[in-house]
Amino acid sequence: MLPIKICAVGDVHGRRYLHIFQASLRSMVLFKPDVCVFVGDMVDEGRVDELEVIIDEVKTKFPNTPIISIFGNEEYHEYEDVFISRYPELLWLNDSIALMNIKGVNIAFVGSRGSLDKLTYWQKRNKPELRLVYIERPKILKSLIDEAKKRAELVVLITHYAPTFLTVRGEPERIYPFMGSQLMERVVRDTKPDVVIHAHAHNARVVETSIGSTKIYNVSLPARKGLTQIEIQPRKTLENYRVGK
Domain coordinates of the chain in residue numbers? Predict the structure, then answer.
């Protein structure tokens, strides 16, 4: 059976890393993805217009490929509806599930910003209510993954924040709690999605790992220096996963 091919990227940050994004996309000659995934922080500081050129580049390269997108911390909460209405061609996931049939395989994509162990200093000052969100969201995602496993043969979890500190290594340890969530790592261990894709950790030196049978990919553009190409064989065995960039 042919592998499912995913092209994933996060942390383009609008114009900041656009040149790396463009160069990597243009270098993809043989890899033809079945789906592309935007893993948050595709723009900077809530600038909705910055996403247009990124979408245009992907649509030009892969004109018939669906694009799934989640929000990062730079796609500000108060602009979510603006992003969704401005870019309806993207399949937006926000603590939600999308089901796709690709090459005869039912795949569930579960998407969310994810959680942090600690609020950032900005969040403490401006959005202290996120503390409760980050406590409750792992429970929500556990329920969504459990539901997805009933409805699909493969489950892909997409979060902006890291669901484990394993793929944050390379960042200063003191900021790990602002990069990801150990509560989410427990969710991954308990629910066992097939693949987890995240971003946010720009300086990570470990960009791939496994938690049990679940393969984890940090697809942050600054960490990878390019887009991440993931191939998943429908058979749920770890040796059938391959990655490139």
Answer: 4-244
Of 135, 158, 132, 134, the C-alpha closest to 145 is 158
* Inter-residue contact 187 to 163 (CB < 8 Å): yes
pLDDT (tens digit per residue) in 155-196: 999 999 999 999 999 999 999 999 999 999 999 999 999 999
* First-to-last C-alpha distance (Å) of the chain: 23
> Could you tell me where the beta strands, DSSP code E, fall in the chain?
4-9, 35-38, 67-69, 91-92, 96-102, 105-112, 154-159, 195-198, 208-211, 214-218, 228-232, 241-244
Residue that is written with structure tokens 């909705």 in the block: 48
| C-alpha 48: how far from chain center | 19
Residue 243, pLDDT > 70, answer no
197-207 pLDDT, tens digit each = 999 999 999 99
Q: Is 164 helix (H, G, I), strand (E, B) or coil?
A: coil
Whether 188 contacts 214, CB under 8 Å:
yes
Residues contacting residue 235 through CB under 8 Å, at least 6 positions apart:
1
The tokens for 206 are 């470990």
Residue ranges of the alpha helices (H) in 99-129? 121-126
- 6 and 39 Cβ atoms separated by less than 8 Å: no
Using DSSP bridges, classify how beta strands 35-38 and 4-9 pair: parallel, antiparallel or unpaired. parallel
Question: What single DSSP character describes residue 135?
Answer: H
Torsion on CA atoms 28, 205, 210, 155, rounded to nearest 10? -50
- What superfamily does domain 4-244 belong to in CATH? Metallo-dependent phosphatases (3.60.21.10)
Rg of the chain over CA atoms, in angstroms? 16
